[in-house]
Amino acid sequence: MESAAPPPTNLLNNIIRKSYAATAPAESKPEKSTDVAAADEKPKKVKRVRAETPSPPSTSDFVVTRPTTRYTDFGGINSILKEVQELIEYPLTHPEIYTHLGVEPPRGILLHGPPGTGKTMLANAIAGESGACFLKVSAPEIVSGMSGESEQKVRELFEQAIANAPSIIFIDEIDAITPKRENSSRGMEKRIVAQLLTSTDTLSLENTGGKPVLIIGATNRPNDLDPALRRAGRFDREICLGIPDEPSRERILRVLASKMRLSGDMDFKDLARRTPGFVGADLVSLTKEAAVLAVNRVFSTLLATPAPATPHGVDFGDDTGANEADKRTVNDEIRSVAPFTAEQMEPLRVDMSDFLNALPKVQPSSKREGFATIPDVSWSDVGALVQVRAELVLSILHPLQHPERFTALGLKMPAGVLLYGPPGCGKTLLAKAIANESGANFISIKGPELLDKYVGESERAVRQVFERARASSPCIVFFDELDALCPRRGMSDGGNGVSERVVNQLLTEMDGLDARKNVVVIAATNRPDIIDPAMLRPGRLDKLLYVPLPTATDRYHILKTLAAKCSLDPSLDLEKVAHDPRCDSFSGADLSALVREAGVSVLRESTVHTTELKILAKHFEQAFQTVFPSVSKADQKIFEKMKQNLRKSRVTLTNQDGDAKDTEAAQPSAAQGDLPPTQAK
């Protein structure tokens, strides 16, 4: 045994011994040369190395501040200020009332909502208004690589808050350290959650000496938090900061621009209307971008001087050299100008044009996250469908804009509207127009976008859509191609059951109408016969609106709308084109293709030297040679039968109180002529 080679670890032990001998020779002892002696000293050396490791951070690592932010620095939070006052300000400023009544004040508040909605700023404003000490910590700051150190940080954070009571502990991105323990694979996360729960339970007035300590958490994923943290006695209440609506955006813009020098042409109401889907952070970015454009405009005005003469012998064939010369000239000119006087700067202002020019440069957060915002489509872009438009106004526009009228009559808001009919008739265009007219936030989803091959991911995507809609209330959720997302259950989907799970999740979300206040669903499809019947019952998609092919008069109005931006010859009669027999069965999409093909015919005939381009009647004649109806006569009959069968199924469903068997009985069978197997007779 003694003749065996020394273990490799002895080399490290020897290095450690030499290091300690060099730093503390007076305390070092004679080292044994044998391997046995070296092995005997190993525990002692390991212990000394551990003693030299940095100790856990002291309480001084958590900075106590007193924020100066106030509610007046906010805009668009009037709806939650009363709740904040009741839950936070009263306990912090007058804890004696709770002691007198023998009740415990709220200990924790969870702020949740999309990124950029002002959760962190609101926490600072709460501390600023109440005058309490403020301990802000980002969740990742608590995480440590050594066992037990993360829990020690949590304990020290709460100890320091109690020592400075009344105080507020603010944990930003709290979901990073408090995931659901059943889904957590790391023991450290479970220990942090357990320590946070234990520390929160100690924040009673008895333990804090009658001085309240409140914990505020902020997250944009509240459903990822451990359920034990969200129970009463810990995070007692949850406050949602959603995407601001149009009036809230106007108030935010006014607050942000209150310290800016603005011209008299500012129209905040119009600017708020042009910024759907923008959160507070996006509006801050918009004001900064507008200020940058204003500064550029100011410099171009103040530095407007004749261009310097071109020196002889300079070869401007080299673009790079010319550009560098221009840059040097501009930079030298800016540096050479003396500081502007107050008289020079007095007339300078940020005007409305700066904000309008900044809009295309700022992308709203909702669009970056994959949610579409309200498109620039209005009723003027819809050239027909008067009856369908009137129904949409009554079903969606009025409830969103005048909810008090429905409340006075004891009526509930419609849960949803299904637009169905032949393809290309304007179903999607109608949904975009009604969303624009309502001024509500808009989330557009195409059916296949939510489908995922992994189990549970499709249902999670559906939940996220409705969570985002609730946070963005009032909001319109538009599902395009609903038949791809919600097919009849029992139909084959490859044996993986994804479609059935998605349908079940959608039905669950549609049933949560009370929780979905001011959230309306609009769906569009050209295959209503394969949509699960449970989606079409009253209480889910209340209104079924058939969008038919346009009549001759409708075609004329559509052509006028499509050709509004085209260069037409005065002799062209669009009404004659609309009543042409070859236009029969043309959908709106077909008419759009017809106008485009007529314009292409003009380009074919013209040359690069042609100065005037006009669309004539002959160009429409040429277009008729290549554009044909996309919906055949047989297809039209099928869609008309669909319309009749859907009406019958709704009557059966209503009379039988939503019995699924009766709904199925009203659906068509496979043996009924020219209809697909799932369509009704």
End-to-end gap = 94 Å
Low-confidence stretches: 1-6, 23-60, 305-317, 656-681
The CATH superfamily of the largest domain bears the name: P-loop containing nucleotide triphosphate hydrolases
Helix content range: 40-55%
Instruction: Give the strand order, joined by hyphens, for the main sheet.
Output: 1-3-4-5-2-6
Strand-pairing-aware structural class:
alpha/beta
Brief digest:
With 681 residues, the chain is of the alpha/beta class. Helices cover 46% and strands 9% of the residues. It is globular.
Structure, explained:
- One of its GO terms (molecular function) is ATP hydrolysis activity.
- Belongs to the AAA ATPase family.
- This is AAA+ ATPase domain-containing protein.
- Residues 28-43 have a biased composition (Basic and acidic residues).
- Keywords: ATP-binding, Nucleotide-binding, Repeat.
- This protein has 681 residues and is of the alpha/beta class.
- The chain has four domains: 71-240, 3-Layer(aba) Sandwich (Rossmann fold); 243-299 and 344-366, Helicase, Ruva Protein, domain 3 (Orthogonal Bundle), CATH 1.10.8; 379-490 and 497-546, Rossmann fold, CATH 3.40.50.300; 552-624, Helicase, Ruva Protein, domain 3, CATH 1.10.8.60.
- Helices cover 46% and strands 9% of the residues.
- It has a six-stranded mixed sheet, with helices on both faces.
- Strand 4, helix 8 and strand 5 form a beta-alpha-beta unit.
- Helix 19 (457-471) packs parallel to helix 21.
- The chain starts with 8 loop residues before the first helix and ends in a 15-residue tail after the last helix.
